[in-house]
Each structure stands twice: as C-alpha cells, then as structure tokens.
Amino acid sequence: MSFTFPRTESKKPGYSPEQVDLFLSRARAQFTNPVDGGVTANDVRNTQFDLIHGGYVPEIIDSAMDKLEDSFASREIQRQKLDRGNYAVEDRHARAVELIRGRLERPKKKRFTNTGFLLRGYSLKQVDAFCEHLSRHLDSQAPITVDDARRIVFNSKRGGYVEAQVDAFIDRVIEVLQLEQNL
Question: What is the pLDDT of residues 46-55, one digit of tens each?
Fold first, then answer.
C-alpha cells in the first residue's frame, strides 16, 4: 500500500488492518493487470472484515471500498461494451430490472420470505417503503443513487423479512444502478 488508513482508538473496534491491506493489495493487482477470475465489483461489495480493537476506521474503509467497487463495476461494464457491444449491457440491465420488478410487483408484506413470529428480520414496513421508492425510480426515474441503496438500514423486527433475501435483492439493485450510470 502506498498509504495507511487511520486507526480507531485502542479500545474501539475497527477493521482488521491485515485483512484490509491483503484485500486491497489483491484488488490493486487485479486493477493494474486485469485477469479473468480475479477480484470483481461483486467481490468488493461482499467483502467483510473482522472487527478488532485499534483497527482501521470502518467509515473510511467503507467509503474506500465503495469507490473501489464503483471503479471495478465501471471497468467491467466498459469491458463488456467493448467485447460484446452496447446491446449486451442494455440486455443485462433489462434482465436485472425484470428480476427486480418481479419482487416489486408482489403485494406489500409478501415481497420476501417472512421469518415467522419467533425470529427477527428486516422491518416489513421499511423494506416495503424502499421497494415503493425503487419502483417509482424504475417507472419514472425518481432519484435514487447507488449510495442510497448501499447505505439503507432497516430496523430488526419479529416476523420481519429474511435478511439474506433482502440483502441479495439490494445487491441486484446496486448492480442495476451501476449499469444505469454506464449506459
């Protein structure tokens, strides 16, 4: 690394510097010398780091990872345009939007699997409100950004939506928004 990130105080949790540095060195190698099977935008989005006392400040690392993901996504989309043409990117966008619309067309409180009364999941009301906003975006281009989707936080409620399903859906939404930026 050419620079280091600031660390938290010794008694506050932060991201493991060893894990962050290792991942970023892999990402840098991939970015400077692209190879198939290397680090992708999806890998960046789904990478998690352990929390340790005195680690890197999470907000700064999260911001850096967001920028890195956007760079990788843009590069992957541009490469797809060069290899297969604009039509391939437009088709990828259309297919992803179709999958999202499939969820959005479901009735409120039934868009995702429910955890049941005993378990906690994401608030049905909050997730459905996000889905309504997303639906307006897809219908009329109401404003929504990649960061809006990345930073959405849902409260945990008994009988909420299964978190893994909603998280996978949000990943797909992020992909669509990144494609929109590069169409």
Answer: 899 999 999 9
pLDDT digit string (tens) for 136-147?
999 987 899 999
Unique residue bearing structure tokens 């991201």 = 15
Half-sphere exposure of 42 (CA within 13 A, CB side): 11
> Is the domain of 69 the same as that of 136?
no
Give alpha helix (H) positions in the chain.
17-32, 41-46, 58-84, 86-104, 124-140, 146-150, 163-182
Number of domains in the chain: 2
C-alpha to C-alpha distance for 57 and 42, rounded to whole angstroms: 22
Domain coverage including residue 37: 13-82
Task: Give the C-alpha separation, 56 to 172, whole Å.
Answer: 28
104-153 tens-digit pLDDT? 999 999 999 999 889 999 999 999 999 999 999 999 878 999 999 999 99
Q: Is residue 114 part of a domain?
A: yes
